[in-house]
Amino acid sequence: MNPELLSITWFILLNVLLIGYAILDGFDLGVGILHPFVARSDNERRLVMNSIGPLWDGNEVWLVTFGGALFAMFPDAYASIFSAFYLPFVLLLFALIFRAVSLEFRSKKVSAVWRTFWDILFFIGSTLAALLFGVAIGALMQGLELSERGDYLGTFWDMISGFSLAVGFFTVSLLAMHGAIYLYLKTEGPLQQRLLGWMKGTFYVYVSLFILVTAWSTFFIPASLQHFSSYPVLWVVPLLNVLAIANIPRAIQQERPFYAFISSCCTIAALVFLFSAAIFPDLVPAVNNAAHSITIFNGASSPLTLKIGLVIVAIGMPLVLSYTVLIYWTFRGKVQLDEHSY
Amino acid sequence: MDVVLLSRLQFAFTIMFHYIFPPLTIGLGLILAYLETRFFFTKKPIFSIASQFWTRIFVLNFAIGVASGIVMEFQFGTNWATYSRFVGDVFGSALAAEGIFAFFLESGFLAVVAFGRHRVRAGLYLFSVYMVALGSVFSSIWIVVANSWQQTPAGHHIVDVLRPTTMADGSSGVLPWVVDGVVQRRAEIVDFMGMVFNPSTVYRLTHVLLGCAAVGAFFVLSISAYYILTNKHREFAKHSFNGAVIFGLVAALGLAANGHSQAQNVYAYQPAKLAAFEGHFETGRGDLNLIGWPNAEQERIDFAINIPGGLSFMVFDDLSFSKTVVGLDRFHVEDRPPLVIPFFSWRIMVGLGGLMIVVCSLGLWFSIKKTLAEKKWLLWTFVFGIGFVILANQSGWIAAEVGRQPWTVHPPVEWNAEGTDLITAADGRYQYDESLGLRTKDSVSAAVSTTEAKSSLVLFSILYLALLAVWIMVLDRKIRTGPKLEDGTDAHGPGGIQQATSDRQHARLNDDSIVKGGA
Q1: Would you say residue B332 lies in a domain?
Q2: Residue B147 shares a structural domain with residue B196
Q3: Of A130, A258, B93, B316, which sees the most CB atoms within 10 A?
């Protein structure tokens, strides 16, 4: 394979990892966002937490692997992005830590104050993580000011724009909806009935923000549609996305929540794709000087390393997928509490 | 304070906090695998009860290990961007491999181990326990590979970064990329297996895994000693103690043997580091300083008590106690590691390692003589011993990481043909090839300000100290609750462990001294 093709292959693989993360940990974060609102009793709160109990940890590994792959295959992009988003990523780490430890600690003491504290932290962690992912994506779509070597020249406040915040809230609403559908699948009784309203509510918020963000990026973020005129076939993706979104209320109405869940997975995948298409071939677009942009070609590792990476993926990914399927199969069905639960 | 120092402090603090948990996970993982195997083949409830107790603690440790582990992966990029660009091709590959081969395995099967006992068949459960243990070991392999590559780099070359450029005559070509007059360079893999099995990987990995085994053993010893002292869960505590004390002794002896060869490996590839460990200033016969205070300015050890020629023996297995050992005087001052921290952390590690052998031998001896429960001082030593074993693990890493300064990527050293001395320049000092390494001060992120680095350090400190407090509190509750039967009753009560293991008890009717002594 020639170097360009290797770079493109890795760009696609990174997208696969990001989509995997966004879909899988997406519902974990969504469950966290809804947690204080949908669950009324302690028992319900435990049910909500345990719906993701055995899964969140493995889901987060998709992010870790995405980070590792970005570091290995596009070290310049990894270095520039992570040092540019210094404070947001430190906060993101805190958010992920809050989420992890609140799941682990909450049920360890029978005390209302103790449990409420971890409930709040669980909510804050999940919401903040979703918000920061969105803000980072929005800021990247707008582009950063980079030095020739690719070091960020701006400040924290430069990346907080109306657009990046809009993408942030959009992400929160998307994951809340995704989480609501997931919870609906995993619960029963009055809790599930209550989730019906939350699915619809979060859907409407999501659709409104979807329209806002789509319009904003179409008119004010020139990059977002840059490849669509040369490759009209790309229009299939937003089209399918709209169909997937439209299918969500339809599936809920028909009481086929699993289809709604699949649709919301599809819309997440389509959105990640659209983000990548907007910045392609850049990984970090430089606004001050296009020559400073870090692309998948000038930011890539050596062809040998990209190939070694492909071998690792070829050996590792089938294993990963097989035990992911095994775990999801083991914990299929409605969530129930037993002595091993959180 | 500048960004370099702040970033180093932050990395040191976050990695030290994180490194409390992986050794516990790896050590306990091996113990869980053992207990579940015994349970699978014997079906004796005591193994299942013990395994479930340790599993609950394992899961708690694992969660904090995961949470604090992501911080480490992010930090290479957030704080050490220049380093990341330089090494990403090589170092990043090891981290990516860790994600795919280790983390998915670990976290996936942990779900079954933690939540799935009633959901899967016994065989799959046992398999899952093995996979979790294996995953945690895989993870340590890739991390030690990555770290060892920085210490003794191999399997790579360091090349100019090439960029397509338009020449003065209008034609285009690919030229070395120059930014602000500096040619940009980076490390690239040329031989993956050479990188993985770089000269120090195997020694260091063995040492790390044995260290983890020691932590696992002493963790179990601590809790079982506490139960013996307070006369709770007697049967469980006795069996756990006996198994763990053997495990601990084997690990501690292994650490001593492996440590010896590892020190020789350090001398071959990072002689300045070993000289700092030992406070060895003057090239010549190596005296082994048992204790003292390193005085960098006067280039001597104050108040030293030493074994003349002891270092020569250690480095070369030299029975004449006289061979020449390269000292710090072979290095320019700016190429020397700091002295005080490596000197003491190295001594703390070695000293505690020796004490581990002593206390495990005593524990085993009194356990065989069935007078263990009378030796309250020894049991209390075991209760608090775990803290010191964790400290020994931490000290070992501190020695390794401060001792390799001022480099993040250590350049190679060249020995003369006989291997007796370094090939020095005219001034008698060794001249490192700077282009083959990377200095710590040149590794940080240019984009990060002092204020940012300061705020994150303060925030991490607060968060981690709070987490540590909550972890100890929850752990303490779990230990006080103790092992429980599957129906939720205390294992110690009627129909509990004692009845369940009556076969074993009948076979060891005379084996009651521990219980009596502890009462």
Answers
A1: no
A2: yes
A3: B93
